[in-house]
Amino acid sequence: MSSHPSSRENRRGWVAGVTVLAVFLMLGMSFAAVPLYRMFCAATGYAGTTQVAKTAPATRGKRDLIVRFDANVGPGLAWSFSPETPQVKLRTGQTATVFFKVTNNSDREIAAQAVFNATPDVAGAYFDKISCFCFSEQRLGPHETADMPVVFFLDPKLEADATMDGVDALTLSYTFFPSKASVPVTAKTGEGAKPAL
Length: 197
Known about the structure:
With 197 residues, this protein is an alpha+beta fold. The protein is 21% helix and 36% strand.
């Protein structure tokens, strides 16, 4: 009879241990969910996520598509942002460079990061960027204006995808949001100040 109470205690200890382990696993998965989702989107083009390429393809494809550009600014960001050309006609495999003009309309330095996607969503898997301002945080001084390039191509593999057969135009969309780490620069310290243009 003396073994019976200790058996219950062992079972309770085991259940408590499994419960604590499950809580830590769920907590860990919640932190891992966002980076895992981003990796999945980047690898598959899911939800219009564009791809990153180091070099352009060696050959051009046969299809010409229209690529439209959309530029937006999130709430609380005192910037103006627009494409310098509204659209380009591009053959698959051909590299293009387009510029976006951005201006800080405030009296202080501001840092921001652009989020992006391509529509229709299926096009993201074939929209490859070689260089883009969206890869890193951008800082503009008070009333500073900058031209920001995007170098990209449309992967010729899209020609073999039946879901792209009826697609004649794509839209590359950017939205700048204030960086969480952006701290106003005071005139007193002058840290990180850039000359206004």
